């Protein structure tokens, strides 16, 4: 899943009802004592509802010069092709989340040590941080799709479904990835992503 979402029930209750989930009194939007940001907080018990970014993991799986993508079965971006991934759960590391999401969506099982950092991207518009890993398989494995994918395929640069890619702003990153695969030389990117743009700072990083 790649949409903004409310991360737990207590946040949901607090936001919709405007009441403190700890003491039930009305929440207000103000700068809490000792803070420098406006936040929903409770004047009765002092509870502060932080709205920090949620963390999403993606896995760019490459085999035989092809990149694995799935066609999303669910909104948002239903029927669009995307890189496998999803939200990091509570009590889960980013690498374990990546292993889990990849297996759930494609049936492909990799180990945490197989995952190499590729992108650390801020998506301010959706209040998310995307951590993207890459991994290499020797052959294009048969896929066993989960409920979040209606199709899955291994694409070369030439036949990549560019017109149906879920975030067209990231297509230059796809091209760059194929370049790196061909060259056998990779980079680590620190990025800002949005629906319409991508700004990268690249660091030479070869594993
Ligand atoms: Zn309270």
Explain what you see.
The chain has 207 residues and is α+β, with helices and mostly antiparallel strands. The protein folds into two domains: 41 residues, Single Sheet (Ubiquitin Ligase Nedd4, Chain: W); 151 residues, Nucleoside Triphosphate Pyrophosphohydrolase, CATH 3.90.79.10. The protein has three helices and twelve strands. The strands form two sheets. Strands 4, 5, 6, 7, 8, 9, 10, 11 and 12 form a nine-stranded mixed β-sheet that branches. The protein starts with 8 loop residues before the first helix and ends with a strand. Bound molecules: zinc ion. Zinc ion (ZN) binds next to loops.
Tell me the fraction of residues in β-strands, as a range.
25-35%
SSE order, one letter for each helix or strand? HEEEEEEEHEEEHEE
Query: What structural class should be given to the helix and strand makeup?
Result: alpha+beta
Spans with pLDDT under 50 lasting ≥5 residues?
Answer: 1-15
Cofactors and ligands: zinc ion
CATH topology of the largest domain: Nucleoside Triphosphate Pyrophosphohydrolase
Assign the CATH class of the largest domain.
Alpha Beta
Straight-line N-to-C gap? 29 Å
Rg computed from alpha carbons, rounded to a whole number of angstroms: 19 Å
Average pLDDT, rounded to a whole number, is 91
Q: Describe the sheet with the most strands.
A: 9 strands, mixed
Q: What is the CATH homologous superfamily assignment of the largest domain?
A: Nucleoside Triphosphate Pyrophosphohydrolase
- Total number of strands: 12
Number of domains: 2
């Amino acid at each position: 899943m790649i949409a903004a979402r409310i991360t737990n029930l207590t946040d949901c209750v607090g936001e919709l009802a405007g009441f403190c989930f700890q003491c039930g009194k009305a929440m207000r939007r103000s700068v809490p004592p000792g803070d420098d940001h406006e936040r929903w907080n409770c004047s009765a018990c002092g509870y502060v509802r932080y709205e920090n970014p949620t963390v999403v993991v993606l896995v760019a799986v490459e085999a035989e010069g092809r990149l694995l993508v799935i066609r999303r079965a669910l909104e948002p971006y239903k029927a669009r092709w995307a890189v496998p991934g999803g939200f990091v759960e509570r009590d889960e590391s980013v690498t374990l989340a990546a292993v889990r999401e990849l297996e759930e969506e494609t049936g492909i099982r990799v180990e945490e040590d197989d995952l190499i950092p590729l992108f650390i991207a801020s998506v301010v518009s959706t209040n998310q941080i995307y951590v993207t890993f890459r991994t290499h398989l020797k052959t294009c494995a048969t896929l066993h799709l989960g409920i979040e994918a209606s199709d899955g395929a291994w694409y070369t640069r030439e036949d990549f479904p560019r017109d149906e890619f879920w975030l067209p702003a990231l297509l230059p990153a796809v091209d760059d990835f194929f370049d790196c695969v061909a060259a056998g030389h990779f980079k680590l990117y620190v990025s800002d992503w949005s629906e319409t743009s991508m700004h990268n700072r690249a660091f030479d990083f070869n594993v």
